[in-house]
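User: Show me a protein chain along with its predicted structure.
Assistant: Here is one chain, sequence first, then structure tokens.
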Amino acid sequence: MRRQPTRALRAFRRADPGAVHIGLVNNMPDAALEATERQFGRLLRAAAGAIPVRLSLFAVAEVPRSAEARHRIERLYSPIDALWETHLDGLIVTGAEPCAPTLQEEPYWESLARLIDWAEYHTHSSIWSCLAAHAAVLHIDGICRQRRAGKLFGVFESAVADHFLTAGAAARVRMPHSRWNGLPQEALTANGYRILTQSEPTGADAFVKQRHSLFVFFQGHPEYEAATLLREYRRDVRRFLKGQAESYPSMPHGYFGEDTVSVLNAMRSELLATRSEECLAAFPWESLTAKVRNTWRPAAVTMYHNWLHYLSVRKEQRLDAESQPATALAESA
């Protein structure tokens, strides 16, 4: 059963000058830097439909980087200082690898706080992903994220609230998560946040707050590709084998089929017995990659499609408003 839109979104006219301009501030760690570019790029293309979309990449200098990652950023990204003079219709800000005990102690906190303030008055809407969502909520309303007893890892089914961003989505959607922290839902609702998707395990999955512009928050990762959680699971297993984690990681919830679970359980028994990275490297990951499915893609495309429609409407309204003084002056001449 699919939810019907509660109100029609105006169609984007091809004659509108320019494309919807989206900025992506990519704070993800080096290992996920290129994958994150690809994931958001593909999701925006799938969601755009007839809406022309232009995507620009920006980087925060204070995020720790390797020499190789810095070289890529120098070639493909603009520095965050260039953003302040750039007109964007929408903004997407990703999470980062936590380094400090609190978010305010992170080396990039001041740049991120300035970005949050800038987005409110220089975009029609912004999307804040994972740690970036936690940082934005903390900066805006002082709501602190809370450490979970265990890692929330897997694909979870959430109930969907009625909102234009969820128009056309199913009544229940699936969304991937990979995080150790979460935001207290009661604090969000008490401070005026509207919950769009939620479940018992995940809490508030997606939520919004209307300020001068529309702030959209995802604690999950609708942009993930089919095999992203598999790669994260393999990374966590490797960290355990290297002694960087005390316990063997749990498999992602609701993600693998029964046959894959059996194969991975057998691998777990072997690795616990041998503690060998060579065994991990020799494991046939390609065969498992072919079996995983992106079951959250329909919901992700629907919500991002609605977001792009919202931006296109707001852009059209802005262009109309900007053209009115010139039109009035020409008519009076």
